[in-house]
Amino acid sequence: MFQKIVKSLAYILVSLLATTAGAKQYPTKAITLIVPFASTGPSDTTARILAQFMSFSLKQKIVIENISGTGGTIGAARAAQSAPDGYTLFVHHIGHATAPAFYPELSYDPIKDFEPIGLINDGAQTFVSRADFPAKDFEEFVAYIKANKGKVSMANAGTGSASHLCGLLFQEAIQTEVATVQFSGTGPAMRDLLSGRIDVMCDQTTNTTPHIKSGKIKAYAVTTPKRIGILPDVPTADEAGLPNFEISVWHALYAPKGTPKPIIDQLTKALQAALQNNILKLRYADLGAEAVSQDRATPEALRAHLQSEIDRWGPIIRKAGVYAN
Ligand code: ASP
Q: What would the pLDDT profile of 86-122 be if each residue is shown by its tens digit?
C-alpha cells in the first residue's frame, strides 16, 4: 500500500515537472512579426497569410507590426535591434538584398545582423496604370511615358523597395524619366492608383491581381521570364519590348542575430508546415505568388539566396548611381 502511494506521488511529481518544463517551452506568448512596409501591401499580405498558418503549428498568435519607411530599412533596422529571443521575427523581400547598394551607410548588415529562417514565396511584378490611362498595351504605355517625359507619376514604396527597383530599371531601359512619388508601402500607393491620383506603378501581383481582374486598373507586362498562370494575357516585359527585363520578388523570414538554434529550428519547421498547407498555397497562387518548395524554406537556402542576390543586384544598382545617402 505504502509503495503504491509513493509511486502515485512520484508519478504526480514527474507529471507536474513535465508540465512546468513544457510550459516553459517556446513560444509561451505572442510573437511579433515586423513587416517593413505599410499594411495592405504585398509584403503585408504575404506576412499575414504566413502568420496565420505558422501560428497553427506554433500554437501562439503572431501579431503583425508594420514599421514602414525608407524602402523597408527602418523596419529592418528595428528587427536587427530586437531581442534575439524568438518573439520578434521579420519578413522582407528582395529589398533586403538590394538595401546595401542603395544605402551605403546602412545601420545594419542584412547578413550579419539576422538569423535566416527560410524563403517564403516568389512572385512577379506587374506594370499597371490607373484605369483611364491612355495606353492599351505596353508599346503605347512606353510611348506615352516617353512623349510626356517627367510628367507621368509613378508610385513606389521608397528608395530600395521592389517597386523602386523596377521603376529605376524601367526608366533606364526606356531612357526616360518619370515623376516618382514615394509611399510608405504599395498598399497606400494602390489606393491612389485606384482613385486616379497616380498614373502608373510596377508592383507585385499580390497587390495588383484583384484590381486587374476587376478592371479597376490596367496591366501591361509582368517582370518574370515567363507569363504567369493567373494573368495569362499579360505579356512578359521581355516579350513586350524590354529585352531581358527580369525581376522576381521573393520574400523571406528572419530572426535577429543570436536567436538560439533550437528556436530557429522550431520556426523553420513551422515555416515548412505552413508552406506545405494546400490552402496557403492556393491563397498565394490566387495572388500570383508561389510558395517555395521545402528545400528552399531553410536557413541554408535563404543564406545562399540572400548572398547571391546581394552579389547580383549590387553592381547593377551601383552602376545606376542611385544612392539614398
Ligand atoms: N511592394 C512594395 C515594394 O515595392 C512593398 C510593400 O508595400 O509590400 O517593395
A: 999 999 999 999 999 999 999 999 999 999 999 999 9
Q: Report cis status (omega within 30 of 0) of the bond before 27.
A: yes
Ligand 1: which of 154, 159, 204 to mutate, judged by most atoms within 8 Å of the beta carbon?
Answer: 204
Matching CATH topology for 2-123+249-320 and 125-222? yes
Fold of 2-123+249-320: D-Maltodextrin-Binding Protein; domain 2 (3.40.190)
| Ligand 1 pocket list (CB less than 6 A) | 37-38, 41-44, 95, 156-157, 161-163, 185-187, 203-204
Question: C-alpha grid cell for residue 129?
Answer: 496604370
CATH of domain 125-222: 3.40.190.10
Instruction: Report the run of H or E that residue 53 belongs to, with start and end.
Output: helix 42-58
Q: Considering the entire predicted model, what is its pTM? A: 0.91
Instruction: Tell me if 122 sits within 8 A of 249, measured CB to CB.
Output: yes
What is the residue with the minimal CA distance to atom 4 of ligand 1?
A: 163
Atom of ligand 1 nearest to the CA of 156: 4
